[in-house]
Amino acid sequence: MDIESLEIREQGSIVKNVDDDGREKRTGTLMTASAHIITAVIGSGVLSLAWANAQLGWVAGPAVLMVFSAITWFTSTLLADCYRTPDSVTGKRNYTYMDVVRANLGGGKVIFCGLAQYCNLVGVSIGYTITASISMAAIQRSDCFHMQGHEAKCDVSNYRFMVIFACIQIVLSQIPNFHSLSWLSIIAAVMSFSYSTIGLGLSIARIVERPDVRTTLTGVTVGVDVSGAEKVWRTFQSLGDIAFAYSFSNVLIEIQDTLKSSPPENQVMKKASLVGVSTTTLFYVLCGCLGYAAFGNSAPGNFLTGFGFYEPFWLVDLGNVFIAVHLIGAYQVFCQPVFQFVERNCQRKWPESNFVCREYSLKAPVLGKLSINLLRVAWRTAYVVVTSVLAMIFPFFNDFLGLIGAFAFWPLTVYLPVEMRIAQAKITRGSSSWIGLKLLSFACFLVSVAAALGSIQGLAADVGGYRPFKPAV
Q1: Three-class SS state of 401
Q2: Element (H, E) at 232
Q3: Long-range contacts of residues 138-147, Cβ cutoff 8 Å, at least 24 apart
Q4: How far is residue 128's CA from residue 120's CA, in Å, rounded to a whole number?
Q5: Is residue 361 classed as helix, strand or coil in its secondary structure?
Q6: Packing angle between helix 265-295 and helix 49-80, nearest 10 degrees?
Q7: Where are the alpha helices (DSSP H) in 49-180?
């Protein structure tokens, strides 16, 4: 029996429509899924692409961007087919990445997936806190120079902006689930397009103003810009930065779980992935290449703040406002799987606890009626506080993004989708398809290892002379 539009009746009154799994009817569409993906993909990673291109040069830089784009899109289509099992259209729903791995692979790979996914999501939370605070501080610094002159001492600490960002996230983290985040993702997606466009405009203006900036086919030059060892480490780290810029597989299943069941979720998700990845790749290539052309081999880690803090100060300010607003939304997209994982397990373990399960209604001015859960308030607030403190301890932008990208790319974006495809399609060991998928997985494993080594080396160098909670002078 088709129960997609079944109505549950309780004491003679209609409660709500439910889907085929008994849960509240999903309302997601191609537009909302694409907005979630764009919000997740065009994050702080775009800001480091000019630097990454500077390390790789005009040949390898754009080529690596396109290769990562193609791999991400291909594996996202494999993952989309795993949302329902055993049949990808009418089978049982799997609500999280771990559920998908459990249904298709089982065993130790479920634990491996959980460790990779949730450690990565926590890392993204920390990375976004760092990035948002950098942009907020850049606004104050720009205004200071504008008001007091270019020679003024306008040193600004990022720490208090991390606190402001955390306070905003504590409030927004009370949004119950992904299904309630569509409006925030759409706003965040618009913001990402806006600051990317501002960055492109500033890059073009700088290229016109300074056409003699030095760029090369192979990136930073050994013996001129860097030593031989630095060239190798920076190349590895740039691979991690690009991998981070394309990571959204860790929230793909959760995004797919918001979609209406007709047309089939996997078909809509494949279209949304194509829209999201192709759109972001266009911006990535433009930002990476034009940013490199603007700054040359000395491209900064965050290309938007690299335009200086002078004129047009208002445009730089606007770009950084857009970054901060975007990351406010993106933080929530990446945190929701962590929030829901903990809350579902607590509800399963303590089903009779009022603290864990009971929802309280609260009427608030402007916002109207709100649903409050004590576990949600306590746990999500603690999560935001802890990730913010970790961001204060390790506020290293490029190295941190590269490390997150390295650890997430191979296991979540490539290895597990490939293994599930082999198991789901019953691909014969030793066949051409099996060999091709395994070679893809192994090549991406080597890239992730290299990226991790480069980022760890960069972090070690940064930590050497760093004192936590001491603002720069």
Answers
A1: helix
A2: helix 228-245
A3: 138/304, 138/305, 138/309, 138/316, 138/320, 139/317, 139/320, 139/321, 141/309, 142/309, 142/310, 142/313, 142/316, 142/317, 142/320, 143/313, 143/317, 144/309, 145/309, 145/310, 145/313, 146/310, 146/311, 146/313
A4: 12
A5: strand
A6: 170
A7: 49-80, 97-104, 108-148, 159-172
Which residues have CB under 8 Å from 5's CB, separation 6+? 17, 25
Q: What is the pLDDT along the chain (473 residues), one digit of tens a residue?
A: 343 333 434 444 444 578 877 788 888 889 888 887 877 776 656 777 888 899 999 999 999 999 989 999 999 999 999 999 888 888 889 988 889 999 999 888 999 988 888 888 888 888 888 888 888 888 888 778 777 776 677 777 788 899 999 999 998 888 776 556 667 777 877 887 788 788 888 888 888 887 788 888 888 888 887 888 888 888 888 887 787 777 777 778 888 988 888 888 999 999 999 998 888 888 888 888 888 888 888 887 777 666 654 567 788 788 888 888 888 888 887 888 889 889 888 999 998 888 888 888 777 665 566 778 899 899 999 999 999 988 888 766 556 666 776 777 888 889 999 999 999 889 999 899 999 999 999 999 998 888 888 778 777 776 666 666 555 43
Strands (E), 294-392: 360-364, 368-372
Read off the tokens for 388: 């913010």
Question: For tokens 């073009």, what's the residue?
Answer: 204
* Rounded distance between C-alpha atoms, residue 81 and residue 61, angstroms: 31
Say if residues 249 and 71 touch (Cβ distance below 8 Å). no
What six digits make up the tokens of 462? 């940064």
Q: In whole angstroms, give the CA distance from residue 349 to residue 450.
A: 41
> How would CATH label the architecture of 30-464?
Up-down Bundle (1.20)
CA distance 10 to 64: 57
Residue 326 CA to residue 318 CA, distance in Å, equals 12
**DSSP designation for 158:** S
- 299/49 Cα distance (integer angstroms): 9
Q: Rounded to an integer, what is the distance from CA 153 to the centroid of its chain?
A: 34
Q: What is the b/e burial string over 121-131, where b = at least 16 CB atoms within 10 angstroms of the residue's CB? A: bbbbbbbbbbb
pTM: predicted TM-score of the whole model, two decimal places: 0.79
d(CA 5, CA 132): 42
Q: Within a 10 A sphere around the Cβ of 361, how many other Cβ atoms?
A: 8
* Angle made by CA atoms 211, 305, 46, in degrees to the nearest 5: 90
Evaluate the CA torsion angle 462, 464, 465, 469 in order and state its sign.
positive
